[in-house]
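Ligand-bound model needed. glutamic acid.
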Amino acid sequence: MKTIIKSIYDNYRNFTGAGKVADYIAPLANVSADKYAISVCTIEGEKYNIGDYKEKFSIQSISKVLTLAMLAPLTGEELWECVGKEPSGSPFNSLVQLEYEKGIPRNPFINAGALVITDKLLQKVPDLNNRLLEFARSLAGSNDIDFNKEIADNEYRTGERNKALAHLMKSFGNFNGKVSHVFRTYCNHCSMEMNTEQLAQAFLFLANKGINPLNGEQIVGYRDSKRINALMLTCGLYDESGDFAYRVGMPGKSGVGGGIVAVIPGKLSIAVWSPELNKYGNSCRGIATLADFTTELGISIF
Ligand code: GLU
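Prediction:
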């Protein structure tokens, strides 16, 4: 495993220029395009890290999996009346589909769906910001995880499209809280900073039937772990989820900070960071790395 990861890393070390670093949230544009890190954690406790794996970056939409995992044990099937489980076939921040589907987002990982999850969580967990940080820290086995206030403030000020999504859902009766409060909380969550080592560790519970291997804590039941993995496989890379399943063969989740985390149930989790994004908002080098990882190791969910 170590040799294969090193050879993939060396192969893509100079692979830049294929995409564009996100700039619609201004501070994200300051991140250097050549940052590159890979971290793997196995459920047996082995770890492999290479590149800029100690450097933290904004996990952005990867946080949507953490909020869904927090909400899953606190809710029942009624959640799925407010948000769907199907790929959207649309960009992550699209308003069009939401209008003709009467304010019910296609899935929890597009922005509208994640806003519904945050709205629902806030009703059950009023101190959500602190609780989410505690949740991420305990999963990652590291206290060095925080929100980035500058990034959260910037998204909160400029995120008109996300506010529009929330208002549109509210007009259909599918949003309970105050849009400003829910959106501010969502921005905090997206601004969370982690490095690939922390991220791979934090997602290992999804490779381990919902149990945090660090302390044996059941984070979500097996049923929810299976369901979250299924949603990541079908919806985790937005309108590129089909291609990701085809090329990589792992449930995964991307963020516009350039991170992608993916798991093979029963085996391992892997996090890759490389900030240049393709037109779907997913890391170009991250996808290439993961595709080679599963092919060269001969392991995927297929
Ligand atoms: N905070 C970002 C947004 O709402 C997350 C998008 C992403 O990472 O894909 O636009």
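The CA atoms of residues 84 and 106 lie 4 Å apart.
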